[in-house]
Amino acid sequence: MRKDERLGMLPDPFICRDGHRVQNIEEWESRRQEILEDAVELEFDGMPPQPEVFRVEATHLQPKGFPSSYRIHCGTKEKTFTFCIYVYRPALDGCLPVVVNGDLTYNWCCNDAVIAEANRRGFIVVRFNRNELAPDFADPDRQYGINALWPELKFTAISAWAWGYHRVIDALVTLDYVDKERIAITGHSRGGKTVLLAGATDTRIRYTCPNGSGTHGCGAYRFNQIEKPRPDSPFYAIHSEPLELLMEGSGHWMGQGLWDYVGKEETLPHDSHYFKALIAPRCYLETNAYGDIWANPRGSYLSLLAAREVWKLYGAEDKCACRYREGEHDHDWTDFNALFDFMEADINGTALPEDITREPYTDMEPLHDWTI
After folding, report:
1. Of the candidates 189, 197, 223, which has an alpha carbon nearest to the alpha carbon of residue 301?
2. Cβ contact 300:228 at 8 Å
3. Contact by Cβ (8 Å): 216, 193
C-alpha cells in the first residue's frame, strides 16, 4: 500500500493578483508577467540584472566536425566576469539546432557518446560549467563568480547559473552556423532546477528539458512521494526531499522567503507547475526515473498535468511532455536521446515516440481541481 502524502491541491495559475481569472491568451501573457515577478522573487531571490557589457572572444576555432571554444566577457562597466563555452559542431553546412548543457562538472552525463549522437542527428552541442558563474556553496560575502558584480543583490546560485545559460544564448545568436530558432537547454539534478528557471525566464529557448530536478525544480511541494525501503539498494530514498532539508543543506540555492513555508508548503502561493507554465507554448520535456524517489518523480508528473492546462490554452498540448525510465538518479544516454527525439519531432512535424507520449503513472488522481 502506498503512503504518498498530499499536502493540498495545486493553486490555479490563471487567477490574477486582482482576483480576475484569465479568459484568453492575451490575459495569460499579463498573468505570466505577474508570476515571473512574484514566484521568481520568492523562490530564487530574483534574477541577476542584464549585463551592461557583453563580448564574445574566439579562443580556439576549428573547422566543422571539430570542437571550438569561446570566452564570454560580461558584467558591469566597472567589473567584468568571463567564462568559457565549448562548441561541438557536426561536419554539416547551414544553421543547425543547438543543445546547451551547463553541467560540465558532471563529465559522465553529456559525454562523448551523447555528443556523437547529437552530432549524428545534425545538432550542435554546447557545454559550459555553471559553477564558474557562482560556487555551489554559501557565499555570504558575495565574493565569487557573478556575485561579485552585484554584491548588494541577493539572487541565489541557481539564479546565477540560469543567467549563465542566458549569456551562452547571447553568444550563440552571434554565430552564423547556429539556428537561433531551435535552441535547447538541459541539465541534471541541481542543473535541472537551473534549466527550469532558465527556460521560464528566456523566451529565446525553444526546448527546455530538466532532468531529475526534484524539489525546487519539477517536483510539487504539495506532494511527498513515500516508498518502502529496498534492501538491494542502500542509497534508495524512501521519501522525496523535503523543503526543510533542502533549506538547511543547500540554502544558497533557495530564496530566503521560502523559510516561511517550511512545514506548511500547502500555503505557498505557487508550486512547481507555475514555472513549467511560464514556458508555454514553447516546447517542454521533463525526464525522470521511476526509482529516483528523492527527486519526487510522481510529484513531478502531477505538476506537469497541472501545467499542461496552459499549453491547452494555446492548443499546443503536444509541446508539453515527459519521459520516464527505469533506474535512479542519473542523466543517462537515453535521457538525452529522448530530448533529441523530442526536438526532431518538433522540427520535422512528426509524431512523438511512444516512450514520450506514454502515461508514466496510471494509479494517480490529478493534484489540481481546475482547468483552463
Report:
1. 223
2. no
3. yes
Peptide bond between residue 360 and the one before it cis (omega within 30 degrees of 0): no
Set of cell numbers at residue 102: 551547463
What span, in angstroms and rounded, lies between the C-alpha atoms of 199 and 255? 18
Residue ranges covered by each domain of the chain: 5-49+88-357
DSSP letter (8 states) at residue 9: P
Rounded (10°) angle between helices 333-348 and 112-120 = 20
CA distance 192 to 99: 14
Would you identify the CATH topology of the domain 5-49+88-357?
A: Rossmann fold (3.40.50)
Residue closest to 67 by CA, chosen among 102, 115, 32: 115
How large is the C-alpha radius of gyration of the chain? 20
Interaxial angle between packed helices 25-44 and 297-314, expressed in degrees from 0 to 180 and rounded to the nearest 10: 150
How far apart (Å, rounded) are the C-alpha atoms in residues 8 and 270?
Answer: 12
Contact present, 42 and 257 (Cβ < 8 Å): yes
Grouping H, G, I as helix, E, B as strand and the rest as coil, residue 239 is strand
Q: Are strands 67-75 and 80-88 parallel, antiparallel or unpaired?
A: antiparallel
Query: Cell for 341?
Result: 527525439
Find cell 514566484 and name the residue. Answer: 39
Decide: helix, strand or coil at residue 256.
Answer: helix
Cell numbers 528539458 correspond to what residue?
Answer: 209
Q: Report whether 73 contacts 80 (CB < 8 A).
A: yes
The one-letter code for the residue type at 269 is P
**Tens-level pLDDT at each residue, the chain (372 residues):** 467 999 999 999 999 999 999 999 999 999 999 999 999 999 999 999 999 999 999 999 999 989 999 999 999 999 999 999 999 999 999 999 999 999 998 888 999 999 999 999 999 999 999 999 999 999 999 999 999 999 999 999 999 999 999 999 999 999 999 999 999 999 999 999 999 999 999 999 999 999 999 999 999 999 999 987 766 665 556 899 999 999 999 999 999 999 999 999 999 999 999 999 999 999 999 999 999 999 999 999 999 999 999 999 999 999 999 999 999 999 999 999 999 999 999 999 999 999 999 999 999 999 999 999
